[in-house]
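Quick note —
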Amino acid sequence: MKTKLPALILWLSLVALATSTTVAAAPRSDVLGLRLEMSKEAVHQRLTKIGRFEREERGRQEVWTLLNDPRFTSLFVGYDREYKVRYVTAVAREEGSRRMRYSEVAPLKDARVENANGVYRRYTWEFKPGKKHAGYFLFAEGRDPEYLKSLSIKRHPGKSTSPETGEKPADDDNLLL
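Predicted structure written out below.
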């Protein structure tokens, strides 16, 4: 028993350290459980549990208010012509103890950083399409040097052709992000 106790303490310390870090271990591929290419029905099933539908804009963009989320206040969900998710943008709370850091999105060293007059920053991560996955972008932006104001995931325009039809997807980049 004496020899197992130090090993147990070491293991518990390592677990506590690993779970307390705020740096993202792997880039996220969703925003609040919403993934690119999800159907509108699946989005509604998820969001009716955590939010309230506010309005639809321009036919293919929805605005939702989140009801008890400690990090985000609202969501914008954009759909393509087939009503599959093309982008999701979450607007962050500006107060509170659970604000999201830029470093929680993905490794900052992998991001392209844009600064506007030293006041506004935007981190962009690009994940190019592969044979087995569609590409996407992650955007984290805001005025605070540590905490983001919004988090977005957007389909990569270089998305591969459909394996079923061989067609390229419709170009919906003229819609708002």
